[in-house]
Amino acid sequence: MRHRLSALSVSLLLALGAGAAHADEGMWMPSQLPDIARQLKAAGFKGKPGDLAELARPPMNAVVKVGGASGAFVSKDGLVLTNHHVAFGVVQYNSKPGRDLIKDGYIASDRAGELPANPDYRVLVTTGFDRVTDSILAAARGKQGRAYYDAVDSASKAAVAKCESEPGYRCSIANMYYGTDFYLVRQLELRDVRLVYAPPNDIGNYGGEVDNFVWPRHAGDFTLLRAYVGKDGKPADYSADNVPYVPPAHLQVSTRNVKDGDFAMLAGYPGVTFRHRMASEFANQIQWQLPSRVALYQRMIDVVEAGGSKDEAARVSYASQVRGMKNTLKRAQGELDGLRRSDAAKVRRDDESAMYTWLDKQADAAATRADIDAAQAVIDQGVATRERDQLLGAIQSQTQLLRAAITLQRWAAERPKPDAQRETGYQQRDEVLITGQLKQVQRRYAPAIEKALLTELLTQYQALPVTQRVAEFDAVFGTRPAQLKTRLDALYAGTKLGDEATRLGAMESDSATLAESGDTLLKAAATLLPAIQRLDDESKASAGELLRLRPAYMRALIAFRKSQGRAVYPDANSTLRVSYGRISAMDPRDGVHYLPLTTVQGIVEKHTGEEPFNAPQPLRDAIAKGDFGSTAEPSLGTQTVDLMTNLDTTGGNSGSPVLDAKGDLIALNFDSNWEAVSASWMFDPRYKRAIHVDMRYLRWLLAKVYPAPHLLKEMNLPAE
Amino acid sequence: MRHRLSALSVSLLLALGAGAAHADEGMWMPSQLPDIARQLKAAGFKGKPGDLAELARPPMNAVVKVGGASGAFVSKDGLVLTNHHVAFGVVQYNSKPGRDLIKDGYIASDRAGELPANPDYRVLVTTGFDRVTDSILAAARGKQGRAYYDAVDSASKAAVAKCESEPGYRCSIANMYYGTDFYLVRQLELRDVRLVYAPPNDIGNYGGEVDNFVWPRHAGDFTLLRAYVGKDGKPADYSADNVPYVPPAHLQVSTRNVKDGDFAMLAGYPGVTFRHRMASEFANQIQWQLPSRVALYQRMIDVVEAGGSKDEAARVSYASQVRGMKNTLKRAQGELDGLRRSDAAKVRRDDESAMYTWLDKQADAAATRADIDAAQAVIDQGVATRERDQLLGAIQSQTQLLRAAITLQRWAAERPKPDAQRETGYQQRDEVLITGQLKQVQRRYAPAIEKALLTELLTQYQALPVTQRVAEFDAVFGTRPAQLKTRLDALYAGTKLGDEATRLGAMESDSATLAESGDTLLKAAATLLPAIQRLDDESKASAGELLRLRPAYMRALIAFRKSQGRAVYPDANSTLRVSYGRISAMDPRDGVHYLPLTTVQGIVEKHTGEEPFNAPQPLRDAIAKGDFGSTAEPSLGTQTVDLMTNLDTTGGNSGSPVLDAKGDLIALNFDSNWEAVSASWMFDPRYKRAIHVDMRYLRWLLAKVYPAPHLLKEMNLPAE
Fold first, then answer.
1. What are the boundaries of the signal sequence (chains A, B) (predicted)?
2. pLDDT above 70 coverage of chain B, percent
3. 10 Å Cβ neighbour count for B633?
């Protein structure tokens, strides 16, 4: 049963597959599935691959975007299945003193008992996906840099505005293959979403942060919602008179058993991957970006913790920021370990070399290589200032008062402009968010720690070669470490931004008034702002150039793969994708084998009675009773909980339905394993796994533990 | 391949097997093996079980006690194989500036290059094992309590003295089945032991403390020594003229491959187990002893760490003690977790109940039950003062200056007696050890921390019911928490024992001189000493009573098992034992499967370049080269490192040879898994595993990595 690869055969496999689509790699656009029909059938799919390409036909029209992640319709009356963590905000929104739905879970006993979600919660059904490359690029052709960027941006905004003129739809432009193709995505926007069934948090999030990214896993991470529409069948805001939305199709939860090796397929909205980045970008990520991020965050954590050890109040103020920094550090370390384990830099470099060797024999090689070389030059330009960009980024993102001062100056600079012309993030709709951030400063700030953090970051910045330095930053903070203490002491002694009323009041001031205030930090921010805007412009100009030039690289890659008989999926970009593979065990390290199915025995083993391993009494009683009915896995003689596949997923795939060969719903995706953190850059078949709730666990919970017989009936499932 | 037990079938299995010998449980005396010949053959043993009973025949006469643990002869010229950690002192003894054998390892290129071990290092060959129950108990019969204890003690000492009158032998009395039977053990004592081959510590102890108790494991924990004797063939101290000892037999290292499920057998000197303790002792261990130990050590650690956080020098002084306390706490927690996981209290109670039900139908039930009840009463008496005994134990073991004061007073009290009549631990031969301890105090003591520790312990002591309190301790420390600070401050202000010269000088003083010194701590110790001696006497009286009474319980158990067709092995007591079972995978928890063989791939995966995962360059080069020759495991296509069996082992089994069905040496035992910490009380077949070096790893290291072709030849092994 075990598929063990020796070190040698893995090297061989990686060398052969070098960066290309492995048997189970791929986040395919549905429209691509007919192109890989043979592989799909060979993997075990029993349906017609052509059907999968049609967004208006089952099963694709049952897959939805929900709460920023994924989900699926599971009844003809608009019942939506997604993750507990995806619907957590809905559960929280409906909790209040005396009704703790997070702790207790919730079962609506009938339609009237279904609870409205927070008003901004959405279920989106993708109904259109049309290639609009020509119209998006029409005005951009012949332009370069920032002009190219702006032309694409304008054309995109115009296409979106036209599409959204029909009420009830949300539209967007999806950029495929890094500027090679553009698609207009049209989504029905369901605005009345209600909470139907949520397990207690101690089931939905069993294992919590401790088990996050961990296999074996034992969480029942699912929630049932229902989408409602107006009586006219059109999307509508919440109203008691609304009626359940009747989806064009829904998925049937499976009643069959599953086992290691079974075909599995997943549809959802993966967020972002970097699989088709250039070899030099892989090298930079592995050799510099991730190691330096680890080192930088470790130093910042050390600085804040050293400050906190002398000042309990400061320690509390920075607890959340330290948690965030530690999370960033952990993720970066995990990604780095994974990419090194997969030897990703070499694998990608060898693959790219092979592509160039092939390309150089083609007719249009010279023009293509010229564009690729130009793209490489833009990337190299970014590498030349990477140290500075990392440090200036941290100076703006990890400070509280300095960041507030810069935000206030930028707000004052953007506010006079017509709303549409303001920078993203400084439009009217952003005012509430900015105000909220300015209020939060109070609970997250201690002058001594902010100065210590800046001392650390600026000392590093001052040590950079002069070519990387920025005149305005030098002017404010000086160029020698010896100046730092005096400058920082003066900056923080002469500011009143530590006072909440002062900060919020400044939101109403124009640039001139801010200048007159004499506040030292606001004055410094006024000096820094032109530099920040200039760097921002430069960054958009580079983005425009890459948008123009990368397609040459992508077209070469696609043609090269085609010559090998293989298709190329675009990197993930939050659009609907399909991946296929199988229920799959894993050998995480020498001597250890992970089984692909977990059982309720693991819940009992992990139970400590304390968060995050506090299995509710009814669950423990039901496990002890052993009454598993039709939901038990016969080969194990017990109830399964979660299962693992080798499906290709990334952030955004939370809540993705997992289907079997016949298209029935066997599981619900909710996490990846720790070894797969690096999969955003490289899919390593040895380590890339996705973690799902086994639908038999959902069925058992609804049948025997927190019963909802009416919902089982609605989903056409047996009562026990 | 996997043997997975559902929760239900495990309960059933434990209920059926209730505390009795499972198929693979048992640390058998060699003399018992003919009694279980049928089981041995059924398990796959291909030899004659009768041969295993003969200490003077192979393979038992090749098994030795070495450095306090186990080992085996592996050549006709006295080559001894044991663990690197068992021979670590020998490696350390031969290291000096410029010759770091710990780091670099050692290969003696010829006999002349073999390095003498520290003079107290011994290889012992068991040559006699005779039942002497009648003579040991002759004088004890009719006596009780302390008198019974002393009679057994005297008879044992006399038997040992007589046996040791033959030069070159060390003898001891082994107590089997808790006083039921006594055996005279006669061992040839080889005093000239030399270092022949040691791998670098980064191989022998790869994984260090991090991997301790961990599977999967990747250590090459072995060393080769050679035993020498005088030219007359008799044991002798080191001399350049000595010749290799020619053992009566030696084991042949196997050249066959091994796999999951293969028969395995192990012989060695397991230290101590408690498997046949009474149900009430299991309950006390699980319900009180281990939880209270965990709590007590956690509080002591907290006290010392709180003190250390304010005083860096104190923190350093107590680092070693804190490490020891944390180790005790971890072991206790591991044992507790394991016993709870196995539901050991219930399993043992049910088994004992079944035994009583059976016993009550037998002819001699009444007399047996009377003895068992009396033994139970002695145990209950111990339970009645367990809180006090734990606290007074910690007060004496975890303090430095107070302990020194008590030791000095006891030394002064014992020294005037004839040496043979002194208490164990206070005889002439103990003087060096005591002096060493008194010197060490200097580096391990801070007055504030010792007072804080005593405050914690005495506050708990003072809260005990008056029935548990001891007048002398009350007199010294007071009976109310309010008195503690004053008393302790006075005690530590008025002592000069913090001065090393004063402590060492006091070793020469008699009780009267110590009394005149006016030292407050010595005065306190003089008050406490009669209480300590009284409690010691009480403890020996209880031990005597249990020695007299427990055999009734053990005889009942043995007869009960016999009625079930099963034999009973005695609890481990550092005598030669044999266990048999098989190479065995393990399911440590839901969803995780441990393979029974690890490979060199795991060394590469774990390698960080820093201790304890700093695989030497030659090893990494050899792995990368992949030249494994005849030592590779064909089914894995690579080199194995360690392997796991379900053999029944405990501390003392380090270095035990693991034999296959034909008696060839396939592995060398060196550790257990963490889940098996509780096996000293209960063998749970789901979790009890033993961890060994695969002999093919040894062969590969000697053939290809740190070559020693002459040793391979001597062991009759292929050159590669």
1. 1-23
2. 97
3. 18
Give the bridge partners for B185, in sequence order.
Answer: B129, B172
Helix (H), strand (E), coil (C) string for A426-479: CCHHHHHHHHHHHHHHHHHCCHHHHHHHHHHHHHHHHCCCHHHCCHHHHHHHCC
**Rounded Cα–Cα distance for residues A109 and A111 (Å):** 7
Best of A206, A310, A594, A601 to disrupt the B interface by mutation (most B CBs within 10 Å)?
A601
A665 bridge partner residues: A253, A659
d(CA B122, CA B170): 11
Closest partner residue to B591 (CB to CB) among A6, A9, A595 is A595
B266: nearest Cα among B646, B696, B559, B529: B646
Whether A595 has its CB under 8 Å from any CB of chain B: the answer is yes
> Is the CB of A598 inside 8 Å of chain B's CB atoms?
yes
Q: Is the peptide bond before A59 cis (omega within 30 degrees of 0)?
A: yes
Give the containing element (helix H, strand E) for B202.
helix B201-204
Length of chain B counted residue by residue: 720
The answer to whether residues A132 and A254 touch, using CB atoms and an 8 Å cutoff, is no
- The DSSP symbol for B649 reads -
Q: Do B604 and A215 touch (CB under 8 A)?
A: no
Helix segments in A564-657, DSSP class H? 600-606, 617-625
Identify the band that residue A426 occupies on the pLDDT scale cut at 50, 70 and 90: very high
Q: Does B608 touch chain A (CB under 8 A)?
A: no
Sign of the Cα torsion A597, A601, A606, A610 reads positive
From chain A, the residues in CB contact with B697 under 8 A are none
Note which residues in 609-638 of chain A have CB less than 8 A from chain B.
Answer: 626, 636-638
pLDDT tens string A601-617: 999 999 999 999 999 99
Enter the ipTM. Answer: 0.85
Say how far apart CA A704 and CA A707 lie, in whole Å. 6
Residue A557 Cα to chain centre, angstroms: 25
CB contact under 8 A, B605 and A590: yes
Go through the domains of chain B in sequence order and give each one's CATH number: 7-122+191-269+575-714 (2.40.10.120), 130-188 (no CATH), 279-544 (no CATH)
Rounded to whole angstroms, the Cα distance separating A609 from A612 reads 8
The 3-state secondary structure of B500-560 reads: HHHHHHHCCCCHHHHHHCCCHHHHHHHHHHHHHHHHHHHHHHHHHHHHHHHHHHHHHHHHH
Q: Which residue has the tokens 């009683």?
A: A621
Alpha carbon distance A330, A572 (integer Å): 23
By CB atoms closer than 10 A (0-12, 13-18, 19+), residue A164 is middle
Asked whether the beta carbons of residue A216 and residue B591 sit closer than 8 angstroms, the reply is yes
* Per-residue model confidence as pLDDT tens digits over A152-194: 999 999 999 999 999 999 999 999 999 999 999 999 999 999 9
In chain B, what residues touch A215 (CB-CB under 8 Å)? 591
Tokens of B114: 């073999």
Cβ burial B603-631 (10 Å sphere, 16+ → b, else e): bbbbbeeeebbbbbeebbebbeeeebeeb
Residues B595, A591: C-beta atoms closer than 8 Å: yes
Phi/psi for B635 (5° steps) reads: -70, -20
pLDDT for residue A19 is more than 50: no
Contact check, Cβ <8 Å, A595/B597: no
For tokens 């004592």, the residue is B189
